[in-house]
Amino acid sequence: MKIRDRLSLQFTGIFAVLLFLVLAGIYITTEKNRRIDFNDRLYDRALTVAELYLAEDNLSKEKFRDVQRKFPLFLPDEIIRIYDNAYQPVFIKQDEYQWPKEVIDRVVGHKQISYRLGSRQVVGLYYNDNSGNFVVLISANDTYGFKRMHELFIDMLFAYVLSLFIMFLLGRLFSRNALSPISKVIKDVKIIRSTSLDRRLEAKGSKDEINELVVTFNNLLEHLDQSFDAQKSFIANASHELRTPITAIIGDVEVTLAQPRTADDYTQTLNRVLNEAVKLNELIENLLEMAQTNIESGFEDIRLDELIWQVKDEWCNKVPGSDIELVYRLGPDIAKYTFPGNRHLLFIAIGNIIKNALKFSGNKKVTCTITGQAHATIISITDLGMPIPEADVKRIFDPFKRGTNSAGFPGFGIGLSLSEKIFRLHNVSVHVNTEYREGSEFVLTFPN
Ligand SMILES: Nc1ncnc2c1ncn2[C@@H]1O[C@H](COP(=O)(O)OP(=O)(O)O)[C@@H](O)[C@H]1O
Ligand SMILES: [Mg+2]
């Protein structure tokens, strides 16, 4: 069911209950008033008859009929009886309607009673007179009142059904109006495809929820658009980088094969081919690692002091003659520098930074300091090479982007972007300290 229909139904439902309560309240009050009103009339009638008749001290049946005639305001289906002290009816024949003795007793006890008997209402009155005490009982049918109540009921029912119908229509109109901006958003969103991510939804100046939704959606589109672009340029860059060494290899081999060469020439060519193949291999390895960050997900508890030691060990072996110093400033609490993460990925990420430090400093001394702080463990990696220009800091983490200081150093510009991706996955922040003048400093913050 659409929200629009659900809203109008709920709206009508609530209104139906409320209206029912109000109408029922009015009906019950009116019915109560009718009863009180009719009781009053019965009471007045009983009193008048008793006064008129008993005041004359004449208890004959003919006289009573006379009084009844004199007092023409009959109530519908009226039955009126007067009983004396001995519960004996006066003025009426024994076979006519008699009230039970208990009722007469109740009148004597309470002086005045009223109750309902089917559709009839009964009023009883204890009347003191100089000729004795009498009980006057009167009952009648409030036909006129019931008729009015019935009419009221029909009117109310009609009004109820009609108002519900109107309410349902109004509810639909209202919800359609309220939801029309959403329908518009849906219509606009339907048009957007991966090829039209540059489209944006039209945002209004108002600060309502729908506008907020539109702005949020536009932000998401912006984000998607950017990552699609990044994706595209990544592929373009990767293809370009892969093609460069292959073109060099093909060119070199073709030239060499064009005519017979000496063994020396072949050796030189093969060496150049080997060189390019090694670069190619490194690039492919980097790309594979990049792809791996999307697949690897196994997290385990890693002791950062051990991890950094393993990375250092690896790079000392890979780059002969390198000098990597480890400085530990950790407290006794091991839990503080135990970090949940993917060992393999973090190994690659920290390794890339150490590799850069060795490469861009020409194998000068690299220092890794691991410091325990209250809410984080900090790993700082410094080298004695050159500082990173402040303007470069923003882009060196983008794939295939290299700093202006990288001229003359081999590389593709993938290392830091890969590291940054891995650190982001682990909620680790990377900071390049541009104040550091002796070389460069990378500061990694592992939150506790
Ligand atoms: N230790 C460092 N010293 C100086 N510059 C650095 C250092 N580490 C990174 N850079 C700069 O960041 C850029 C990006 O690094 P990276 O992504 O690893 O690419 P690559 O090493 O292939 O150049 C480098 O080209 C360089 O300009
Ligand atoms: Mg690098």
Highlighted features:
448 residues; alpha+beta; Beta-Lactamase; Helix Hairpins; Heat Shock Protein 90; 3 domains; rod-shaped; binds adenosine-5'-diphosphate
Uncertain runs are none
User: Helicity range of the residues?
Assistant: 55-70%
Give the CATH class of the largest domain.
Alpha Beta
CATH architect. name of the largest domain: 2-Layer Sandwich
> So how many helices?
10
**Biggest sheet strand line-up:** 2-1-5-4-3
Using only CA atoms, what is the Rg? Answer: 51 Å
| CATH H-tier superfamily of the largest domain | Histidine kinase-like ATPase, C-terminal domain
Domain tally = 3
Number of strands: 12
Q: Which sequence of SSEs, written as H and E, runs from N to C?
A: HHEEHEEEHHHEHEEHEEHHEE
Strand content: 15-25%
Largest sheet: 5 strands, antiparallel
Bound molecules: adenosine-5'-diphosphate, magnesium ion
Can you give a write-up of this model?
The protein has 448 residues and is of the alpha+beta class. The chain folds into 3 domains: 3-149, Beta-Lactamase; 193-295, Helix Hairpins, CATH 1.10.287; 297-447, Histidine kinase-like ATPase, C-terminal domain (Heat Shock Protein 90, 2-Layer Sandwich). Helix content is 56%, strand content 17%. It contains 10 helices and 12 strands. A 5-stranded antiparallel β-sheet has the order 2-1-5-4-3, sandwiched between helices. Strands 7-9-10-12-11 form a 5-stranded mixed β-sheet. The longest helix is centred in the N-terminal third of the chain and has 52 residues, at 3-54. It starts with a helix and ends with a strand. Bound molecules: adenosine-5'-diphosphate and magnesium ion (MG). Adenosine-5'-diphosphate (ADP) binds at residues 352, 356-357, 360, 383, 385-386, 388, 392, 396, 402-403, 405-406, 411-417, 440.
